[in-house]
Amino acid sequence: MPNLRRERYTPYLFLFPAYGLLFLLWFYPLLYAGYLSLYNKDFNKPTQFDFVGLGNYIKFFTIDPLALTVTLATIIITLATTLLSLGIGLATAYVLMKKRSRLIKTLIIYPYAVPTIVVSLAILWIVDPTYGIFTYLYYLMTGIKVNLLSSPTTALMTVISAYVWKYYALATLILLAALEGVPQERYEAAMIDGADALRRFIYITIPSIKPTLVLLTLLLLINGFQAFDALYQITFGGPFNTTTDLVLYAYQNAFTFFKISYGSAVGILSSLVMLGVAVLYLRVIKVE
Amino acid sequence: MVLLPMYWIIYTALLPEELVYSWPPRLIPSRLMPDYFINIFKAYPILRWMMNSFIVSLFTVCISVPPAVLAGYGFYRYTKFRGRSTLFSFLFLVTCVPPTIIIIPYFIMLNTWGLIDTLIGLAITYVSFVLPLQVILYYSYLFSIPREIEEAAMIDGASKLRILTSIILPLSYPGIAAISIYAFNLAWNEFAFAITLLRSQSNWTTVIGIYSFIGQWKMDWNGAMVTSIYTTIPSFIFFFLTQKYFIKGLTAGALKGK
Amino acid sequence: MSSEPKKVDRRKFIYAGLGAVALIAIGAAAYVAMNPPVVTQTVTTSTTVPTTSLVTTTMPTTSVITTTVPTTSVVTTTAPIPTHLRYFTHQVFEAGVKEIWEDVINMYQQRNPGVTVELYGAPWSKAQDVLIVELQTSAAPDIVMLPWPPITPFAPFLEPLDDYMKKYGWNLDDIAYQREPDLAVWSKESGGDDKIYAALHSSGEESALIYRRDIFKERGIPDPQEEGYPKWSLDEFLNVIRKCTYTKSDGTKVYGYAFPTNPADGVSRWGEDWVDYLLAAGGGLVRPEQPGKIICGVKPYIDANVEVGEFMRTLVKEELVPVGTLKPKYFDLQIMGQVCMTRHGPWQFGLFASTVEGYGGGHPEQMPNVSATLLPFFGKGWKYADETGWSTAFGIAKNSPHKEEAFKFINLACSPEVCKIFTEKLFWLFCNKKVLSPDVFDKHPFLKAYATAQEIAEVHAYGLTLPGFAAKSTEMWKAWMDTAQKILYTNENIADLYVQLQDRLETIAKG
Q1: From the CA of A194, how many Å to the nearest CA of chain B?
Q2: In the complex, which subunits touch A with 3 or more CB pairs below 8 angstroms?
Q3: Considering the entire predicted model, what is its pTM?
Q4: Is residue B8 domain-resident?
Q5: What is the pLDDT along chain B (258 residues), one digit of tens a residue?
Q6: Do A228 and B66 touch (CB under 8 A)?
Q7: How many domains does the structure of chain B reveal?
Q8: What are the residues whose beta carbons fall under 8 Å from the beta carbon of C338, sequence distance 6 or more?
Q9: CATH number of the domain residue B119 falls in
């Protein structure tokens, strides 16, 4: 007979290694960030260190003129990255599903394996107003030499495309694995029932890979929300802070403007928002 | 569009230096300089950088995957125990915190433990970043394994849950592969923490190495691109190796599905 | 059904586990092999100290840590204290510069037995962040090279140097350019009179305003060079820009001002110059309770100056600068604020020329009569911590346990001896008068020479295309720097030197 007393503790045993590590490593940083955000430490004014409680958070919602722009940019970047990566990834995976070549399947992961700095450099060069290939092609077509990074809309598009380039590969890989796991009989049954390709796709494929899809979307959402590297390297916030997302804004406040308390507050705020989004997302999915 | 950056990276790596800045940019260069691929090893310690990156990534994967698997299974198998939802939400919270704002406390922490400028210190930091998501991913993956197998094993008298893990584990190779890839990739390509927590040049990772080509006024495009090509090769190898488990696990699952 | 796969799978599991353990073991072994404890014996009699390479022959030598052990039996009066200093600089990422620092470290170690110096850093773009993190902890480096001229954010963590400077005989008058605080000064209350010297400068450059003389003439603006440098107030400067902004008869708009380098910024990366300008003109600090003020978007001055914000906002609101659309922006470059780093001369000119093109300003060949002068604020003096140009400054961390030895290093690094090494090898110029010939510096002649040299380096004057210029820029740069060295170290007539330089540049261009 299984020892019931031991059974009660085994879940904790399973969780212990992971949570032990996590608590060990995250305890202090979370406290530190929280602690700082309640004060008004600023490296530019070294003597000041007063307790402001929720002042920083209130400041973000009321006074900060950039708060709205930044939040909007975050939403746009996150949604666009997620949807585009997912869409392109799904399409690519569907196309590649029938192929047998392992080489291709390894190569498609290339964009995800490349360090972000390389992607950023590549993009910077391609859209460079003086030497870029994109500029050149556009010039050939329209006779105009444009600078994609100087206009908010196009800068946003450039940055989003950098992330999509990176993440669609991940999406492809994961969806490919999921698609190949769909048992063939279901398709055959559907074909016997006379369903065409589109119907098959909607009613068989999507539901079969639903768990993976849900997870992948969550992963992409989280990564999109925390998009930092490429933003930092390509536009550093963009023309007048129009391509700044919450994470970059927190970083800027902390390390560029040296308002470290405010930066921590923005960071924590963005984590809470992200957490809220994730929880909401999961709830919506489970309802279905 | 997809291949363009990839093409450009290889293209620039092969260009002789003065053609890098040219207008109009040409798709097919007039001259190639492939010897930099070899010469760069003499000029910069690329192999050392790759070794460092490899050590850090390997440590990250090895330290993070086993606890993640255990915890993921723990959540999957046990659906009612005290604090379950709180603990699970903690995972989400930690995933959502942007690493850039906690870099200072991490530095202070590692400094106290004497782990600054060590590869293992960096690996531990990365572990703390990947672990939550790994647990969530693995947990979700477990749902796609048919329950009958597990139940059969339990009825067979495999009361020790450790035996159960040796059944679940082989079936979940794709899941493990996925979380390993995630951890490896993050550790391999991460920069902000690497540059802060490492110091000596002998400890540089490849990403730091790539950054070293970006000077304040000048930039060595060739060097950066060549290094980045070499950087992606180990990632490829890792993916290639884990591909096997992907497919194997899937076919095993498909067979059992019948 | 489950028994057979169970056995097989368990074996595989064990194999996988063993494999993982083996990999970890290999990794650990490799790690240990890579990082053996380093101790080398060096000979104190030789001038260059051999450095150890850690593993293989394919790696260049890395001089991370060397220890010097006196091998002679000379009895020293005081036993050397084994001290280890850490020196942080972003220049460890700059090829060519790193090696010079290694030599300087060797020099220092030879002269101070028992003290070792470790060289490390972060790339320039990240140096500030890493430094801020490190300076707050007990792991702070002892000697710090500040990556940006403004030192206000770092100053709280730096040790005041007043006493050391007195002890080692540093004289403010030794620093050139007649700038009021020539060393980095941090006033306690950002405006108070307490001067605490937190960092010591060793090199410096000026910021320049680049403009077109013909357009100024055409629009009726007096050429600033006639007075040496422009003495405009902010409003006057805005008016100048307004005058230079117009729409041509064919409908294309001509912008009066453009920011250099990264157009995506919208605001110049070098915008802090404007902050200094306004601080000097008597501006104040933005209070947080003043909402709606535009923010510069540049490094530490987000909180600075309402007037900078107003200046920027005016530029944008009145469309005096080309800011972001896909529509073509044809304009002849009128004025451009640009940091032209003197040590890089013509090369930097090429850089800003490409920025011009980035703004759709046409090919640099269409840029006649470009000239350069100082940014308008020069000469008004300022009281605050910040720089009008670019400079390298050294500081000592407050947490350092070896401040005296650290200052000795700084003393060496800023000494004429070491400055000469940099000048000779890299053509860098220094603001330490001890390095320079005294009679050369007379009412900023170098700066005037700099502006003239910029003129000489006009791309179009030599019929070069931009790529062609890029190809020749190194040679031209060297020519320019040779001239600069002659100006510094000889008593030759400056005008003659520039004529020679011009000839030489033309030859290079045509060759």
Answers
A1: 24
A2: B, C
A3: 0.70
A4: no
A5: 556 666 666 666 665 544 454 445 555 555 566 666 777 777 788 888 989 999 999 999 999 999 998 888 888 877 777 888 888 888 888 888 888 888 888 988 888 888 888 899 999 999 999 999 889 888 877 777 777 777 776 677 655 566 666 777 777 777 788 788 888 988 998 888 998 888 888 888 988 888 887 765 556 677 777 888 888 888 878 877 776 665 444 444 433 333
A6: no
A7: 1
A8: C207, C208, C209, C210, C260, C261, C270, C352, C355
A9: 1.10.3720.10
